[in-house]
Every structure is written in structure tokens, then in C-alpha cells.
Amino acid sequence: MGTAYTITDYNTGSTFIMAFTGGESHAEMECTDAFNASLYKAAFGGEYNYSKRPVVVSISGRQIAASLSGWPHGSDQYTANEMGGHACLFFDGSLSHVGNLPDAEHQELVYKAAGRG
Fold it and tell me: Which one of 25, 27, 106, 113 has the fewest CB atoms closer than 10 angstroms to its CB?
């Protein structure tokens, strides 16, 4: 909880910092400040929306393929980040909030971020 990670948008190469704020079947992430939230928002076309993007997460010197949602929702741990909630981050095998089922679109984007899609 609270550990910050560098997220790289697979399509654009832009980077921003997000922190792990919870989650069991997938990671719930928030930008650490308003500057990083603006970079996150820019990756999603300049506005929060329901799209998903392939990303790469830097974890302990490793590059891990993932998929990030563009719609902040739910609990908000970093209230000064102008994000208004957390975003869902899926890795290979992550499950959704809906019936604890896989999310096919996120899984496809994880494969793309891994260079397999």
C-alpha cells in the first residue's frame, strides 16, 4: 500500500507515477499528485474516459505488461491529485469487479504491452 511505480503508456511512451492503493483481483492505483494525474489524463486523450490502454509498469527493475483503465472511481487516497478516485490496473490473469471474471479487453491489452498482441 502506498508504493509508487512508474507507468509507461505503451502507445505513446509517456510516463507518470501511480501508487498502489488497494485491490485483490487487480491493482487499484492513483496518481501521486496533480502533475502526474495530468500526464495520466493526457495518455487517455486529455480527459477521463472509459477506455483502456496497454502500459508497462516498472517494478523493482523489471518491466511488467499491464492494462490501465481511464476512469477514476471509488475510494480516493490522494485527495490533492485532482483525480477523484482510483484507476484499475490489470496484469496477466487479473479479474474484474464483475463476478470476479476475467476482462477480455484488459487481457488483450496486457498481451499487447508484452509485445504479443
Answer: 25
Of the CA atoms within 13 Å of residue 10, those in its CB half-sphere come to 21
Cα–Cα distance, 2 to 9 (Å, whole number): 21
Q: What is the pLDDT along the chain (117 residues), one digit of tens a residue?
A: 889 999 999 999 999 999 999 998 999 999 999 999 999 999 999 999 999 999 999 999 999 999 999 999 999 999 999 999 999 999 999 999 888 889 999 999 999 999 986
Question: From the CB of residue 48, how many other CB atoms can be counted at a distance below 10 Å?
Answer: 19
Give the start-to-end residue ranges of the domains of the chain: 4-113
Instruction: Look up residue 25 and give its three cell numbers.
Output: 483481483
